[in-house]
Amino acid sequence: MPDLREVADPAPSPDGVVIKVAATGLCRSDWHGWMGHDPAIALPHVPGHELAGVVEAAGPRVTGWRAGDRVTVPFVCACGRCPACAAGEQQVCERQTQPGFTHWGSFAEYVAVENADVNLVGLPDGLGFAAAAGLGCRFATAYRALTAHGRVAPGQWVAVHGCGGVGLSAVMIAAAAGARVVAVDISPAALDLARAFGADTCLQGPDGVPETIAEVTGGGAHVSLDALGDPRTCANSIACLRRRGRHVQVGLLPPQAVPAALPMERVIAYELSVLGSHGMPAHAYGPMLDLVAAGTLRPDRLITTTIGLAAAPRALAAMGTTSPPGVTMIEP
Ligand SMILES: [Zn+2]
Ligand SMILES: [Zn+2]
Asked: Of all helices (H) and strands (E), which one includes residue 312?
């Protein structure tokens, strides 16, 4: 079982900052880390990558940020100098750092973030820390999966397989974009939330899901997301698409898990697109933050549970089995 310990405060690197954490989300990726699915994690380790807070100290080469700034970060913190970064695709940076994975994360009072001028996102005045904390991982990932990859348009059908934090975010974002949403989960409580966030149709999966979606949507979804990261939901997501449909893989499928068997014959016959989504770079946050500021998107409504740091170890370990529906937020 992980536990809560007193450790030395981090210091900022020359290009980095230290952020005083005000809120940090509990995410399935943290659970994967805890389960040992990420070989980069060495013990002892501090998880946590969905954070918002206040800059406590900035390194000498940071020009855009200073102590007192209210900020969040994408979970992929980019280097700003590699070819991917030069192309504006910081979410797939070749030398990325990730708090909670490549170094100690935000289930703590303070967290260090590298390359602050590339990665920090200032929070609009009206946006609270708890709502902002989820933006860097699940909400931005769902947003970019639907907009940049899914290219979702009003009136189209979107299927969301798995209604945890990222899935519920996707339901909310797709509905706000004018799409009609089919939400799939095994948990009736998660489906109740999906309905509240704008899903037209809720299906208890995973059996018979592609067939039912084809029926409900009159031929299949235009865009479908595996928001869980499971061979079954991945295959269902591809199989529920109509011709020329787009599958976006959002949930992690760690290499240690059973490999997903993709129906490539269907991918060819229907000319499907199979796309991966790996977060969203800091420079792309503007349109999403505008929708949040306008109240069109309400990340605050995803938070169903708020706990302190002392309760975090148990909540992390429970994620595989008994975690509550919606998003659990930790406020150190
Ligand atoms: Zn996350
Ligand atoms: Zn880079």
From this structure: helix 312-318
CA of 82 to the centre of ligand 1 (A): 24
Please report which ligand is nearest the Cα atom of 278. Answer: 1
Strands 157-161 and 180-185: parallel
Please say whether the beta carbons of 272 and 223 come within 8 A.
no
Domains and CATH numbers, the chain: 17-137+280-330 (3.90.180.10), 142-276 (3.40.50.720)
Task: Please report, for residues 74, 133, 248, the alpha-carbon distance to residue 287 in angstroms, rounded to integers and kept in the order given.
Answer: 15, 17, 21
pLDDT along the chain (332 residues), means of 10: 94 98 93 88 95 98 98 97 98 97 97 98 94 92 97 98 94 98 96 97 94 98 96 95 97 79 93 96 96 94 93 90 82 94
Ligand 2: centre distance to CA 79 (Å): 4
Backbone angles phi, psi at 249, to 5 degrees: -85, 115
Cα–Cα distance between 97 and 255 in angstroms, integer? Answer: 20
Main-chain phi, psi angles of 219, to 5 degrees: 125, -10
